[in-house]
What does this fold into?
Amino acid sequence: MQTWYATFSHLNPSRVRLIMLGLMAGILFLVAAGLTFIYASYRQVSVKPYVSPTNSVEPSPSLDPLRPYAILLLGYGGGNHAGGKLTDTIMVARVDPRAQTVHLLSIPRDVWVSFPSSAEGETHWKLNAAYAIGSDLRGYASRPDQFKGEAGGGELAKYAVGKIVGFPIDHFVAVNFAGFERSIDVLGGVNVRVERTFDDFLYPIEGKEEDTCGKTPEEMVASATFSAELAEKEFPCRYEHLHFEAGLVHMDGATALKYVRSRHGAQDGSDFGRSARQRNLLTAVRDRIFEVNFIPKAIPFISTLAGNMQTDIPISKLQEWFGQANQFQNYAIYNLALTDQNVFTEGRSSDGQYIFHSRAGIDDWQSIHDYIQAQIVATATASAVKDDQE
It folds into this structure.
């Protein structure tokens, strides 16, 4: 303060006020410019659903601010990965502000569900194809308008998942592998609770999908007839060995991606095992975000993920949620896996694909809706009892 005073003490008071006003204006300009940049950058990852120009928009009724809402979380390969837009991870976060609970629902990617991929009506696909089909700007051009445009993939995935779970999906967030790794790394890594020790000797090495592993051209021709299982054994150089020890493990982005993607571990190699690992990782990410006070940096960081992330969450809604961060920290998190142990059964589609469908039959979702609702009510009741006891 003495330095400032010495600098300006010889000036006329009105001149000092002008200088201070100029400095304040400069600071406000820089802040405004920074916010404008963030908003402009966020628009590169934010998409809006298609609105037909012929349809008038009816004013929406005022909603209960404490009503439950649901966010669809999608993970996909992207880049040069085969089937880059097929979703490896499909989870729903159902948030109930009134009960202060979050239910993380894992849904198998092989669930057989119908959705409108063309003007002829709905056809059956594996669930993991919904985002890919809706994101295809050239193919499936006859699908309904509401599933077109930049948000088409998310909208189609929300529609399909909503059928399965029995409640509407409000928003979606889709992140590819590169965006996933970067997000974990910017947090400084996360501490994940690994539930069981497992080894995966067949984790694919990116870029080595076509490696000959020293085989001659004649041997490569012969290998073209191998089954997928035999090909894995014949080309060991295409795979690496993963080992995860049970307990609390610190993971960077690359390690966390391998942890949630691993599919061939004898001890934990099923899709349901992967779903459990994905839920464990989300819990670790939540804890790390609060630990390093990342909330104020979240929107600027998200804005850097252009090309690796897509969402229909408006920036105003993100700011509203971030303003409630202290409340979210106290929410109880419940994991709910939809598996062949509770609501699904294995089967084959009419064209021979391996699928999951409701135990009550293909397209019969009511029993799954009832199961989910019963679990939500039971955990909400348990949370209320715990709060009363505390």
Remarks:
- Confidence is low (pLDDT under 50) at residues 25-38.
- Residues 54 and 371 are 40 Å apart (CA to CA).
- The radius of gyration is 25 Å.
- The first strand starts at residue 69 and ends at 76.
